[in-house]
């Protein structure tokens, strides 16, 4: 095994947890590998390009990624999907091979009930989103909870965030009938009605749900539908909580961040896109953003893709009322 992990650009973008300072969980050893070590994602396959994560002076810790056919891969499932935790020398600490036909993403460490846990999304990919469930594994890598938003909703791959008080924030992409004439589509069209759910992890009870179609007109979307395809008007890709406990929701297709009242579901404010509540500072702009958070009441952080195909940059956006 070499000191370089070969990770494809597509895999790195979707499935990573990156490098976690201080390592994962002390109990984790190579004895917790999957039953098929030959499926290890760190073998030097032709996965795109090489990233040397073992640079002198680099942060300590493990590397988290998903090999094989991941949720970002748009082709047919061709290789087993494997969740991998490896050290910086390329040695596998833990891995989990998924059943045939399933993919995964969002592998990372979070905290539940004061302890570190490993979390990920697992299921089937469909048109840029996922249909599956959200998983939590304990310090022994045993799965202790599998969550969905309840009812007919499945968990999407974009967001599975645990809160300090034991709740989970989960995205879903239910497909519903909709009149698309406002954006040049058919009256009997179909749209992905992106939904944000808050679920109590211990009881699996859904505490709150908010769907885009009930609050945002389809005409707000700059995208145009394609005949015969379900319209992805919103593309919800992250959910977080602000310091007041309201939801901060990113809608990539709208290039807009929404702050939603957790009690009423009303939109408190919008940042970016059409009808922004705020005027951005001089030279500040963003589009097709990911990973929106509010570390304090006056700051929004996000990954700025800026436009389709862009590499993107991280941005901190100070705002003032328009």
From TrEMBL:
InterPro entries: Arylsulfate_ST (IPR053143), ASST-like (IPR039535), TAT_signal (IPR006311). Keywords: Transferase. The keyword Thylakoid does not apply. It holds the Pfam family Arylsulfotran_2. One of its GO terms (molecular function) is transferase activity. This is Arylsulfotransferase family protein. It comes from Mycobacterium kansasii.
